[in-house]
Amino acid sequence: MYKYKSSEHRIRQLNYLLEKKRIDELTELLRRTNPIDVVECIEDLPAEEALVIFRLLKKEDAIEVFAELDQEDKQKLQSGLNEDEFKQILDELNFDDMIDTLEEMPAQMVQNILETSDSQTRDLVNEYLQFPEYSAGTLMTTEFVEVSPDMTVGQTLEYIEKVGHDKVTVYTCYVTGPKKVLLGYVSLRVIVTSEPDVKIKDLMYEDVITVETTEDQEDVAHKFQKYGFTALPVVDHANKLVGIITVDDIMWIIEQEATEDFQRIAGTTPEESDYSRMTAWDLAKNRIPWLMFLMISGAFTSTILKRYEDVIQTVIALNMFIPMLTGSGGNAGSQASTLVIRAMATHDIEPRDWAKVVLKEISVGLICGLALAVVAFLKSYLFDKVAINVAFVVALTILAIVVMAKAIGSLLPIVAEKFGADPAIMASPLITTIVDSLGLIVYFNIAQAILPGITM
């Protein structure tokens, strides 16, 4: 039995044979290589060498490889293919993969390709291209098994045998009535374990979870996660079945959405390409706007320090605790915002739960704040040797700041969601900036209230 080598080893072999121009051996190795590993190999090659690899693939492997490539690598191959070659590849792709490819191509090239396509394909492509960006309609495929409720099990099995090789999946058959209205679905397992003369309408499930063509892709991903389906039917406003979305189409959406959330949490504009492919300038231009905004926002801290300059001059010891207090507040707020953003992304909480969430985080803030306050008091009094009333100010302030930071960190993402903004923008850097400014105001006002001899 042939033992498959690890993907890293296989990719090194492919690169070595390509470099040495040992084409016969390279062709044989490609025949034994999983298409996903070929994708990884092509991603790291310049256009000319990537095209050599691609042309040596068997037709069915070439189609699968092309479908798995991201748009940047597809364009890399496309630049070396003539229009006829490219058209042949498009014709063999699943419909959703073809649409993804066409969306990234110049309009004139798309027009040229459509002019040589049959009218049904042209109509479908034009319909797809009308769907809103990031909607369910842009993810679906029309290659599914559709059956009539009056068909028998025997007829259905014959039909699946006839058309199944052209479908994305045959494990679920969708039952439609007049005008393609979705009536229900039946699994292949139920079909093959039923008597041949039983009708589909007696086997089908009528309670169907669907998505609409205009539904946001993030909501679609949530339905896959919630219900654990391998495919979901896509319907229009009249419940007409227009396509299906399979779980492999949605997996990259889940990864993409999570990546974008992490990038926003880090205080950067979401990147349009992989980190390894981006230049220093590409990365910098996505970060400069946020850094600029945060720098300007941070200027409020200087304004607050100037406003309370007399307090600082009266009790110099207050100044030494500012970094600890603002740092603790920023960390507490970041913890709350990150957890709330994640909970909202998984639909564990909704904007309507805001009061429950904020109250919970205030409770967490009280517990954490009291623990930090005790440690801060002991540190400032025993180790920093400040007066006991100054140590008390520091302890009381850190309690207040942590509670405030937890409340703000939990509330702002919910407010953002309520007003249609991405909750992830209310993330660590922004929360820290807000809490820093408010924390200083709290600190100096507590000092004024407790310490003798401080006036404004």
From TrEMBL:
PANTHER family: MAGNESIUM TRANSPORTER MGTE
Species this chain originates from: Anaerococcus nagyae
Role summary: Acts as a magnesium transporter.
Membrane protein topology class: Multi-pass membrane protein
SUPFAM superfamilies in the cross-refs: CBS-domain pair, MgtE membrane domain-like, MgtE N-terminal domain-like
Pfam families hit by this protein: CBS, MgtE, MgtE_N
Keyword Magnesium appears in the UniProt entry: yes
Keywords linked to the UniProt accession: CBS domain, Cell membrane, Magnesium, Membrane, Metal-binding, Transmembrane, Transmembrane helix, Transport
Transmembrane segments: 288-305, 362-383, 390-412, 424-446
Protein name, per record: Magnesium transporter MgtE
Location(s) in or outside the cell: Cell membrane; Membrane
